[in-house]
Design a protein that fits this description.
The protein has helices at 12-23, 57-71, 94-122, 143-163, 200-210, 222-234, 246-257, 260-270, and strands at residues 3-6, 27-32, 47-51, 76-79, 84-86, 125-130, 168-175, 187-189, 241-244. It has a single domain (3-191, 220-255), classed as Rossmann fold (3-Layer(aba) Sandwich), CATH 3.40.50.720. It has 279 residues and is an alpha/beta fold. The longest helix is centred in the middle third of the chain and has 29 residues, at 94-122.
């Protein structure tokens, strides 16, 4: 029986991924910052909960070593933990910027660096890094979030060259919109949307579009994204990127078929940002 360790499993995509792997006969190390608050996953057969804070080297080390000891091995790691920091870059604090990168980018690196010696020794293992379609395209007021995801895309692609000759696979999954609580507990703003400043007008226009409930009609469920994660983890092909969700696929197809300037103008038009506002 194979074993997978998944980060960020308290809700959303991570929780759905735990269930999907478990239902397909895997042993699952489900990690989260506060496992004592989780009441569902711990009841599943062959699922164990571990405390893991990706911003702590010690926490990462303890969780991975404990999972290997408890399950007798480790075959796949899914790096899913992360959150979104949205709003104007100018209003972000140093602490907000540091935490965004520490979680979304450096946290993944910590997990991979800790597990690499084990995978290298057994000459096998797969990393599945969850980025976002936002690691391939950008939208307004997500500059810091996009920065982490674009960096993770480049890091992962380059790392694949280094570790695949050692028997280690590295994969990327890029979800589009997901019907989870990401916009609630997994989203932080750099400013209060009600605050009045130079960005208020265009921020309000953007949020009105982003938060429209009708947009979620085209979003994927956490379970649908979990299926793609499982595909990436078990695929025998050398495919690096797995774009997840019909909206993400359409977005990416449009980006590839258009000039950068035309694509950017389309985004601005869709959000009503074509006209300058008074600063």
């Amino acid at each position: 029986m194979k074993t997978v360790l998944i980060t960020g499993t308290s809700s959303g995509i991570g929780k759905a991924a735990v269930k999907h792997f478990q239902q397909n006969g895997w042993q699952v190390a489900a990690t989260m910052r506060r496992p004592e608050n989780e009441t569902e996953l711990g009841q599943l057969e062959n699922v164990k909960l571990y405390a893991l804070d990706v911003t702590s080297n010690e926490s990462v080390k303890n969780a991975i070593q404990s999972a290997i000891k408890d399950f007798g091995g480790l075959d796949v790691i899914v790096n899913n933990a992360g959150y979104g920091l949205a709003g104007p870059f100018e209003t972000a604090t140093e602490e907000q910027i540091a935490r965004q990168y520490d979680t979304n980018l450096f946290g993944v690196m910590r997990v991979m660096r800790e597990a690499l010696p084990y995978f290298r020794e057994q000459k096998a293992g797969t990393f599945v890094n969850i980025t976002s379609i936002g690691g391939l395209i950008t939208l307004p007021f997500n500059s810091l979030y996009h920065g982490t995801k674009w960096a993770l895309e480049g890091f992962t692609e380059s790392l694949a060259y280094e570790v695949e000759p050692l028997g280690i696979k590295v994969r990327l999954v890029e979800p589009g919109g997901v019907r989870t609580d990401f916009a609630g507990r997994s989203l932080v703003m750099t400013m209060d949307p009600a605050e009045q400043n130079a960005y208020s007008e265009i921020l309000q226009k953007t949020l009105k579009v982003f938060m429209d409930p009708a947009r979620q009609d085209s979003y994927s469920s956490g379970e649908q994204i979990a299926e793609v994660i499982y595909e990436a983890a078990t695929s025998e092909s050398n495919q690096l990127r797995f774009i997840a969700g019909e909206d993400a696929k359409e977005f990416w197809a449009g980006r590839q078929s258009m000039k950068v300037e035309d694509f950017n103008n389309m985004i601005k038009d869709n959000l009503g940002l074509g006209k300058e506002v008074e600063a």
